[in-house]
Every structure is written in C-alpha cells, then in structure tokens.
Specification:
With 464 residues, the chain is of the alpha/beta class. The protein has a 7-stranded mixed β-sheet, with helices on both faces. Strands 13-16-15 form a 3-stranded antiparallel β-sheet, covered by helices on one side. α5 packs across α14, α7 packs across α14 and α8 runs parallel beside α9. The protein starts with 14 loop residues before the first helix and ends in a 10-residue tail after the last helix. It binds pyridoxal-5'-phosphate. The site of pyridoxal-5'-phosphate has 13 residues, from α8.
Length: 464
C-alpha cells in the first residue's frame, strides 16, 4: 500500500483532529484497511507540512478512540477490531464485502455515527431524565426536542419558531402525516414526473388522485406546474428541490421562486422534501423560506446521521401545526422520545452537523471517482450527494442495461422505478455510491458499469 496521506482539504478545526477525522473516514471506507501500518508520525508530518507534534497528537488521539494501536518497536497500526460491530450484524443487514456490488440503494456511508450514538445512549442511560422519556408525552411536554428541531433547521439554513416545528419518525412519516392531515380523499396531489414513489403508494392508500409534473434537464418545469393549476385544482405539490431523487438536479433559485409564486396564486400547498439537503453545503434558498405560508418543509437525520434513528422534523405554517401534531398522534401516538432524545443531544452538541459534513466529504470524494471512471461525458450534470443520474447512450434500453449490469454482479436502478407514468420514463439509470462502504468495491462496480456503457446495446435495437 502506498504511504497513507489524508486529504485535509475542506476540513476545519485543529489540525490534529482533522487528521483523526480523515483517518476515521478512510478506515470506514477501506482506504486505510484494518491492520495497515501507519507512516511514522515524523514522516506524515513532513508529507502534510505540519509539525511532528501535531501528528504525534493525532496518533495519540486515534489510539484513544481505538482507531489505532501502537506496537513497541514495530510501529502504529489500524486496529483490528475484535468486536467489529459489523461482525454482530445480521447477515441481511451487512454491507457485504463480497458478492454482488450494490449501487442501487441510497443510504449514508455507515460507520461514522455509531461511536457518537453509543456515547449519547450511555449518557441518557445514566441520566435522571430517562424516566420522563419513558412516559406518554404530549406535544409540549419535552420542549427541548422541538428546540433541537429548531437547531437542526438552522443547520438547514432555516430560522423557525418553535410552534412551527413538528418532530416525526423520519421524512417518510413526515410526508404521510402531511398527506393525512391536509388532503382529503379525491384531492389531486402533484409530484415530479420522476419521484420518490412511496409517496405515490401513500396517495393510493389515501385515495388521492395524482398528477405528474413534467421535468427537463434543470428539474421540474414551473410552466408544467402552472398548466396543472389552470386545468385541474391540485391541492398539493410534493417535490424534492435539492438533489432530486433520482435525477440529482438542484432547482435554481429562479425556478423555486416561480413555483412559489404559482403555488401562492392558485392556493396550492407545497410539500418540500429536503431529506438530501444535509448532503449539500451550498444549498439554494429553500422553498419554505420563499413561501413560508404555503410550504411544509420535510427534513430528517437519515442521510446525515443514521436512517435507523428514525427522526425527522416538519416545519409548517403555525396555523397547520396542530393538524400535523394530530396526524403524528394518530399514526404513532408520539415520535419516540428516546430516539428524539438521542437525536437532540447529537444536534445540540454539534455532532449531527459534523456528521453531515463528514458525509458530504465522502460524497464529494465518491462523486470524483464516478467522474474519473465514467467520464464527464456520461454524467452531464455532476452533483453532490450519493446518487448519480446516468442517461444512457442512444440505443440502450434501461431494463436491458440494468440486466446486463446484474449479470455482471452490479445492482443499479432503472429510471422506470421512479416514474409516475412508466411510459414517460427516460432510458436512464440511477447509481448510488454510498451503500457499499468499501471504496474498492465501488470502484469495481463503476468500472463494470463503464464497461457496459462501452458495449454495443444488444437487444435494444428493437426499441421504437
Ligand atoms: C426523496 C426521499 N424522501 C424521503 C425519504 C425517506 O427518508 P427517511 O429515512 O427520513 O424517512 C427518502 C429515503 O430514501 C427519499 O429518498
């Protein structure tokens, strides 16, 4: 292995901690394998142009965090964890180190939040406040959870009053609560033509009608939204303006403003899904900021901290908050106070924001890998976040392409699985580069996809 040299660009804080954080990331992604020998601290200091004191402090901190161990006379090594939590994971949850390479699932990189969640759970276990977390709660019993929601919204670039914040069990639950609270059977719900399809399943269950708003290369088209508003009477428009799933497009401020104007003109509620917002550092102004009285904003900790926490927040116009609280109450009684407590502590001590930055850094690194391997021509609009949108060259049909990838042991998702109307789906593929923790496997998967891209499309020539 080449000498390990951490990438410290775009990191902030004391240098020695930057080195430790970079080390933790590189261990999690496999760039620094278990058992690997670290360069002597003087050597690393020379490479990084810092003082030996700084690298020596970094190594000491990494030993304290059980990332490294020193062996007298031999050097410093990445710790082989006997109690590697991955060993204790059920087989079905392991992000496998062998077998098919999964580029189909949009999850955060694993391994960063566990240490912090363990710490916070231990704090809660020893805290007298535990008892009150174990009781039934009303919306106002534990105001510090909504205060944490306020801090999280602040991280998302939004100021909010406490009476506008509704804690929910993740973004998906938040969307369901909005639909249950504010739409009636028979109402028309609009969504982007390619969308997060669980929302369509919710709409079907609630007996809502749905309509697809057309998109172009810059995302959903305001004029298509306006046409719906003129011709039908939509009640709400669900959309993902930042790092859209699956296309990755982030809507321009001009389109956001126009959509907000149209929504206000026709009295349409906007449901702004921003679950990917924490993965983007240069977010444009959220819709809810442009149109606070007609927008419900949905955020969660799933992509930045851990999806298993199941914590999210809605920000709603104050006049709608009571109806949303009622939906939460009806569906789950209350957002579990224990997990909300874990999330609140991580938010308030800055850990959640740091974990989001860590995910952003890994995402940027992986997006560079994508560009290196697939080439800029294949990815017309490189993005942040963990998903990649790959429009296929002429002649390829997405189902044939994904079958060919699957035959070569790489899982990808076809555009059709996100389409409101399957017949409108473009011939495109979504790749996700974070489900696989190990970077070598991501690299191999992308190389296989690049190889398929170079093939002549077989069996696709019949497409009309
Ligand atoms: C666009 C979109 N919205 C919402 C969700 C659900 O997020 P959560 O885990 O917060 O429920 C997902 C999950 O992948 C998603 O892709």
């Amino acid at each position: 292995m080449a000498i390990w040299k951490p990438d410290l660009s775009s990191r902030v804080g004391p240098k020695y901690l930057q080195i430790v954080e970079a080390m933790a990331e590189d261990i999690a992604t496999g760039r620094l394998p278990q058992g690997a020998r670290l360069p002597p601290h003087r050597e690393l200091a020379y490479q990084l142009d810092v003082s030996p004191n700084t690298t020596s402090r970094a190594y000491a901190e990494a030993v304290k965090r059980a990332l490294l161990k020193g062996e007298v006379g031999r050097g410093t090594f990445v710790r082989l964890s006997k109690s590697d939590p991955a060993q204790a994971e059920p087989e079905s949850l392991k992000r496998a180190a062998s077998g098919p390479i999964d580029l189909s699932r949009n999850l955060p990189m694993p391994g960063f939040s566990e240490r912090h969640i363990r710490r916070v759970m231990a704090e809660i276990a020893n805290d007298a406040g535990l008892r009150s977390l174990l009781d039934y709660q009303t919306d106002t019993d534990l105001p510090h959870h909504r205060v944490a929601g306020q801090t999280w919204l602040d991280n998302c670039g939004l100021a909010s009053g406490l009476d506008c914040i509704v804690p929910v069990v993740g973004g998906q639950h938040g969307i369901l609560c909005v639909l249950m609270a504010l739409l009636q059977s028979g109402d028309l719900l609009l969504a982007e033509a390619l969308t997060y399809t669980p929302v369509l399943a919710m709409a079907a269950r609630l007996n809502l009608q749905t309509g697809a708003v057309a998109m172009d290369g810059d995302g959903v088209m305001p004029e298509a939204f306006e046409a719906w508003c003129r011709d039908a009477k939509p009640k709400a428009f669900y959309l993902t303006p930042t790092l859209q799933a699956p296309t990755t497009v982030t809507l321009s401020e001009a389109r956001r403003t126009r959509i907000a104007e149209i929504a206000a003109q026709y009295g349409v509620l906007l449901i702004e899904d921003d679950v990917f917002g924490p993965l983007k550092s240069d977010n444009p102004v959220p819709l809810v900021q442009i149109a606070p009285e007609t927008t419900i904003y949905v955020t969660s900790l799933s992509k930045a901290v851990a999806p298993g926490l199941r914590v999210g927040f809605l920000k709603a116009p104050a006049k709608l908050a009571a109806a949303l609280h009622q939906s939460v109450n009806l569906s789950v009684w209350m957002t579990p106070p224990l997990t909300l407590e874990v999330a609140s502590r991580l938010i308030e001590d800055g850990t959640a924001a740091e974990l989001a930055s860590q995910q952003q850094r890994v995402a940027r690194h992986r997006q560079r890998l994508v560009q290196d391997i697939l080439g800029m021509a294949a990815i017309p609009s490189p993005s942040d976040g963990f998903h990649v949108w790959l429009p296929l060259p002429q002649g390829w049909r997405a189902d044939v392409f994904s079958s060919e990838c699957a035959r070569l042991s790489v899982r990808v998702s076809e555009a059709r699985s996100f389409a409101m109307n399957a017949s409108d789906a473009p011939e495109a593929i979504r790749l996700c580069v974070s489900h696989e923790a190990n970077e070598e496997r991501v690299q191999r998967g992308l190389e296989i996809v690049a190889g398929v891209l170079r093939q002549k499309p077989s069996g696709s020539s019949m497409v009309i």
